Amino acid sequence: MPYNPQQNRVAERMNMIILNMVRSMMLFKNVKLMFWADAVLCAIYVKNRCPSNAIRNKAPYEMWYGHIPSVKHIRVFGSTCYALIPKVHRNKLGVRSHKCIFLGYSNTSKSYRLYDEVNKNFVVSRDVIFLKSSKTDNVVERKLDRLDIFKNAVVYLGGIIWGTEGGIQGNNVIMGWDIVTNKMVNPYHVRDHK
Questions:
Q1: Do 78 and 27 contact (CB within 8 A), yes or no?
Q2: Residues of 44-59 as b/e, b for ≥16 C-beta within 10 angstroms?
Q3: What integer is the mean pLDDT of 79-97?
C-alpha cells in the first residue's frame, strides 16, 4: 500500500534486518560510509545463504538452485587483502599485488569485489590473499573452518557465526557463536544479545 510502510510488515522487517546487518558489518571493520551499497549487496549475498524458518530451515539459495550453497569462500566484509596483478600488467621487478579492502562478491563471476585505496578504483579478482591480522579475524576464520562441516549452511553475520546441522527431517538445530564473548548464542534471544 503506498505511503503506508507499516502495512508492508514483511518487507519492512526484511529492510530492518538487512540494514542491521550492514550497520554491524561496517562498524565491525570501520569501513567508510561511501561503501554502504557494497555492504548491502554483501549482506544480501550472505542472507541468501542463511537458513530460514519460513522455508523449513533451508537457505533461499538452496531453494532456488536445488543444492546446498558452499560457504568456503565467505570472508569478513572490510578485511584487508592483496589482489594479484595479472602478468600482462606488471613487469619483472614490479610489485605482484596491491593492497585492497574486501567489499563483497562479484555478480558475474566466482571472484571477489575489492577496492584499491591507492589507485582509488574497484577491482574484481579471483586471486586474492586475505590477511588475518587481528585476533578477531583469526577467530572468525577458525570458526568458519570448523563450522563448515554442517550440512546446510554456515554464515558470519556481524559478530555472530550461524550454522545449521541435521538433515531435511525438520529437527535441525540452529546455533550461533559470538566471536566477541566466545560463547554460544541462542537464536531466539538474538534481540537481547549484546
A1: no
A2: bbbbbbbbeeeeebbb
A3: 91
Map residue 33 onto helix, strand or coil.
helix
Q: In this predicted structure, what is the pLDDT of residue 10? A: 84
Identify which has the larger pLDDT, 149 or 76.
76
Residue 110 CA: distances (Å) to CA of 58, 89, 98, 166:
22, 21, 20, 28
* Cβ–Cβ under 8 Å, residues 75 and 112: yes
Residue written as cell 569485489?
113
Tell me which of 6-10, 128-132, 155-159 is least confident. 155-159
Q: pTM to 2 decimals?
A: 0.66
